[in-house]
Amino acid sequence: MLRTRSVINAIRKLQAVTLSSDTTQHVDTTYMEIPLYDIDKPQTLEKRKARLHYQSRKRGMLENDLLLSTFAKKHLDSFTEKQTIMYDRLINSPSNDWDIFYWIVEKKPTPKEFDNEIMDLLKKHAKNENKIALSQPPLY
Predict the structure, then answer these.
(1) Are 134 and 66 in contact (CB under 8 A)?
(2) pLDDT tens for residues 82-119?
(3) Phi, then psi, of 7 in degrees rounded to 5
(4) How far apart are the C-alpha atoms of 7 and 99, rounded to whole Å?
(5) What secondary structure does DSSP assign to 27-65, as a single string?
(6) What angle do CA 118, 120, 121 make, to 5 degrees?
(7) What is the C-alpha separation between 98 and 55, in angstroms, rounded?
(8) Nearest-CA neighbor of 125 among 87, 85, 68?
(9) What global pTM score does this model have?
(10) Which DSSP symbol is given to 27?
(11) How confident is the model at residue 62 (pLDDT cuts 50, 70, 90)?
């Protein structure tokens, strides 16, 4: 019985060591940057829109998941190529999702490079003037 207990304790210690990582022990996770995406990568309009639908839904913060996914569901398919690229730049250029959120809800001024017709549509969408209950659209 004593030997079994010491074996179990040894296994637990080993698991604790293997689950902790020296590379992430001292990482401040309170501010995580969005990974850079090559916006200028050549792709068809159809592929770009499909990617943007997915990226609009999977942001990493629920506030933007809800705002951007419902916005994309409502508007993205009707965007021209120019509008689609503007939207792509907007959601993939800033290094922090909170910045995007604060610009959309007008808690911070929108930088000049993102202050365009797409941002205007997003701000209007976020106001939800008709008080429609929003939920994320399905991915398929």
Answers:
(1) yes
(2) 999 999 999 998 878 899 999 999 999 999 999 999 99
(3) -65, -45
(4) 51
(5) --TTS-PPPP--TT----HHHHHHHHHHHHH--SSHHHH
(6) 65
(7) 15
(8) 68
(9) 0.69
(10) -
(11) confident
